[in-house]
Design brief:
single chain; about 120 residues; alpha+beta; Alpha-Beta Plaits; 2 domains; 3 helices; 4 strands; about 20% strand
Length: about 120
Amino acid sequence: MSTAIICIVIIVICIFGIRSYTKRLSSGCCGGGETEKSVKPADKNADHYPYVKKIRIEGMTCPNCARRIENAFNKIDGMWAKVDSSSGYGTILMKQEKDDAELKRIVQRAGYTAAQIE
């Protein structure tokens, strides 16, 4: 009897795993079938951004995730973000210094976690 219950639990887990995997194959890891469109900062001259912070971001799984975080920062006047999903880090260039709590909130609103800010 216990063997049958264990087998049923394993089968249910496999079914959910397969459904999740097929969903990712068909619609991407971020749940949407389309790639996120890039939002470019108004000012792309790095010399105009005297403040720089490096953020370790958790929860990114693909370049679309990185683009979503970049867009969250690039939409804000005076900020320019470059995020790499493979390393898990983002570099934030700022015209005015922002406190770490504000940077964490921006990452969190994008759906990710700012684990460390340097």
